[in-house]
Amino acid sequence: MTPSLVIENARTEAGAIVSLILANDRIAAIGPNAAAGIDPAVPRFDAAGGLLCHPFVDGHIHLDKTLIGLPFIPHIPGDTVAKRIEAEKSLRRTVSLSVEARGGALLERLAAYGTLSVRSHVDIDTEVGLKGLEAVLSLKQSHGHLVDIQTVAFPQSGVLRDPGTAGLLDAAIAAGADLVGGLDPAGIDNDVTGHLDAIFAVAGKYGVGLDIHLHDGGALGAFELRQIADRTVALGLEGKVVVSHAFCLGELGDADFGRTAAVLARSGVAIMTSAPGPVPMPPVKRLAAAGVRCFCANDNIRDAWSPFGNGDMLERVGILCDRQDLRSDEDLAAAFRLATLAPAEILGRPVGSLQAGSPADFNILPAASLAEAVAARPLDRTVFRGGAIIARGGRLIV
Ligand SMILES: [Zn+2]
């Protein structure tokens, strides 16, 4: 191997000070004495004791929805999911900047914060057809050097209440979308069986996973979760299905919670939370103890659903910890991993420790531990992608 960069004075999660030898896009060596004997002419980077961390993975965003790149657009309120869908459609018709431009601007911001992989839901409905998907797929080409992108064909307007959408979901997977989405089988389509039949049929046909938005609450939401888990097992899709939001898990009694968590754990259905506003949310620590895979993601970043969000996963993890009263070092470190290794596993990204042979994709944060990083949320971070520094201090340098 020919060294391309030496990184000195990096701190591992265990607290050891190490050097890393990079050989192009891989870590060739890592250890306290790894730099010994390396040609002094090889470029060097002093990590100044900064913490070496896995890159962030944002496992749930909407590249086609974001309004980043436009002047601030005031939020249009809507007190139900259905009203917000209509408000968003009205707004969408007036937005002049393309999905490519807005989504590209968001990807650049995410990369600047150290997020190197994302899963983007993309609206599929009978008005927009596959246009949003085609735009997001083009971002894989234009921005793939910064961020790896997975796509979910997302029926934001429902499936049964927007006839023709099921066929479009099928066409979306054929056109290159990675997963089939879904949305509130009861709350939006008013037909749990019909909605799940439609989306699982497409997933089964192509052998792809699903990622389903579920806002339906209480016992109804829990029933839908168990239905999703049963169908996951029936189709052999264990480990390939995510339910996003699953607010219901935050409002169940002990017996229903235990029964539902056990089914989720057995089926490998993962739960995503963005720790959203004043609504119940899945208790991530309790779910993890029950063997349910969880992860944290930004979801809406400055769009018709929310004027908030800056794209920084460290900020999102901090919000999660605030909302779930996670304060110990152990809990904060576990929460950090909800934005790195947990979603990486679900998206099929590298999940091993940073060692010789690993991709040279990582962040260096000015913190002594994962807990301090979550508590302080430092912006002064250095982002390595493919063995090169692509961002410092929250700004891209490539
Ligand atoms: Zn979403």
From TrEMBL:
Gene3D superfamilies: Metal-dependent hydrolases, Urease, subunit C, domain 1
UniProt GO molecular function: hydrolase activity, acting on carbon-nitrogen (but not peptide) bonds, in cyclic amidines
Keyword vocabulary terms for this entry: Hydrolase
Listed Pfam families: Amidohydro_3
InterPro entries documented for this protein: Amidohydro_3 (IPR013108), Metal-dep_hydrolase_composite (IPR011059), Metal_Hydrolase (IPR032466), Metallo-hydrolase_Enzymes (IPR052349)
CDD domains assigned: Bact_CD (cd01293)
Domain spans labelled Amidohydrolase: 107-373
Protein's UniProt keywords contain Cell membrane: no
UniProt keyword annotation of Hydrolase present: yes
Name of the protein in its database record: Amidohydrolase family protein
Originating species: Rhizobium leguminosarum
